[in-house]
TrEMBL record, chains A, B:
Binding positions for substrate per the UniProt entry: Q166, R187, E224, E250
CDD domains in the record: PBP2_TRAP_ketoacid_lactate_like (cd13604)
Name of this protein: Extracellular solute-binding protein, family 7
Alphabetical list of Pfam families matching this protein: DctP
Entry annotated with the keyword Signal: yes
Entry's Gene Ontology BP terms: transmembrane transport
GO cellular component: tripartite ATP-independent periplasmic transporter complex
Coiled coil: none
Amino acid sequence: MDVAKNLVRGLLIAATSVILVACGGSEEAKKTVKSESKVDVIHWKMVTTWPKNFPGLGTGAEGLAKSITEMSNGRLTVKVYAAGELVPALEVFDAVSRGTAQMGHGGAFYWKGKVPASQFFSAVPFGFTAQEMNSWLHYGGGLPLWEEIYAPFNLIPMAAGNTGVQMGGWFNKEINSLEDFKGLKMRLPGLGGEVLKKVGGIPVNLPGGEIFTSLQTGAIDATEWVGPYNDLAFGLYKAAKYNYFPGWHEPGSTMEALYNKEAFDALPKDLQLIVRAATRQANAVMLDEFTARNNAALETLVNDHQVILKRFPDEVLSALKKASIETLEEVAAADPMSQKVYDSFSAFNRKVRAWHQVSERAYINARELN
Amino acid sequence: MDVAKNLVRGLLIAATSVILVACGGSEEAKKTVKSESKVDVIHWKMVTTWPKNFPGLGTGAEGLAKSITEMSNGRLTVKVYAAGELVPALEVFDAVSRGTAQMGHGGAFYWKGKVPASQFFSAVPFGFTAQEMNSWLHYGGGLPLWEEIYAPFNLIPMAAGNTGVQMGGWFNKEINSLEDFKGLKMRLPGLGGEVLKKVGGIPVNLPGGEIFTSLQTGAIDATEWVGPYNDLAFGLYKAAKYNYFPGWHEPGSTMEALYNKEAFDALPKDLQLIVRAATRQANAVMLDEFTARNNAALETLVNDHQVILKRFPDEVLSALKKASIETLEEVAAADPMSQKVYDSFSAFNRKVRAWHQVSERAYINARELN
């Protein structure tokens, strides 16, 4: 195959030399030729952690594949595999690392067993909003650190989608004080689960397919999922009465695209830039979609399905915030790389929050004044 | 030129046919050839409303030009002209409309004299945040309306940058009540100026180059500009004592890229998609940059230049909000297209604000609890 490609390329260069002569070597012709001699056709596989056609997250990954294929005019095609089609969801990281697939789409929290510091790049309790996360990654030193922790695995990460602030979860009893978390069995994976443990709850890790039944039978007391758009489709309102906000545990969950380093480095520069821009586009598109679609779903949940929308009390949020900071400090203390990432994360957090006190927060409150 | 191009293309197709034969028509070769025969070299000019190297806004436009040039591997090159280099700032719209330049970068508020409805696509007092604006444009029907109002001018608009929530302006006296706006001469262009008039102030429209001196000599009492990152560089702290927040008049100012319709439509599909993705990328990059850089500038203003940071009182913000809604309704009532855009804008506004009550706003307040 490579031999055949090289043969084609060699012949093209020879052929285009003839054209140069034919055209008298005009500036226009020279530039045209320069592009011609670089074309190859490359086929990539994208493995994902999402079920087929999963709204927002899975469809976002499919949109990214389509963009790369079309922007490259078919020079780089990307075929998407849902979770389990080529590899199981939780093997995406390894599959891209070893080159079984050239790229993947998922969330960095899934890889905490391999790279504890990855947890700072997906969903951080009381962490960044989507806007803040993107700013930290692209202008605050976040992305270079993410690249550094994935480099030993032969992987290049990029932000590839964001849900915005999620909901706080589905409960069958009211949360009136911190006491109500004591002994509460809640499906809450990742760092949020660690925080729950600190306030006396029992975090349970369940795959998506088991959540609904577990909640309905009382095997768990509560669950979080994403936000109204996904939660409505998932039917969680049939198994729980109260939908709480805000999603303190996932205030701006970032999805990731993973690229196999050799595969990415082997691309010509223009295709690398196309991949980067397509990923950045996918990152923005997902947030735009969730922001636009959550309210209609929320209205359906409240008006058609009699879901009771409730805010966690201040006392509870304060305690969760305190427990979140403790949890993050423990994660940071466990290994030097996590500490390095956390130091960057928290320094940026202090600064961007100070700025958002006088901008985003001040405005979003001012416009609610009567 | 076109004849020469067609000649080159014709010869290329002929030449690649020979290759097909030479390679025995393998699948690989066929695909390679398909891409080869479409290459052209196109040179575009981008005119902008920004001074050369203007931080954030002008550099954002330059980044966009570079992305398009590099992602297309030089098949589509874009040369940037600062305001006045090819055409004056306020002639960008016309220059791209008639094809003097193939694209432009600026803000839709500049064209209100030609297209009153354009004002809903840049800076709207008490309007959308950056996240909300992007969601309305790309998933809420905003962009199709923007395209519709620019179509008669042979122009295709796209969002190409956002400043986030701006600051409320620079003042030499405190604003303690609405009375303090009476007779206040403030440089405040666009819809914000109309609102100021309603609360008794005197809006003044000054080009950037005259603001500093006017403020220093007392010819104006106050001015707005952008936010700390630009305001610090502009030296406004030398001419005013108080910096007020929030920027109620520009809560998520959107920059625009304008494309000449014939020039855009003449691009092959892959280049069109490259232009779209590069613009979407530029849209995100600018917000990331402002979000990351404003706080350091704000700290310098307060700590090194003794600027006094103040929030507008609730009473003032309430009155400005009321006056803003009146202003928008008047703009809408003036022509059917403005009404159509405003109807879409305000319907989306109700929905996204309802969602952000339980997500972005609820979270950004919860994390400030002790």
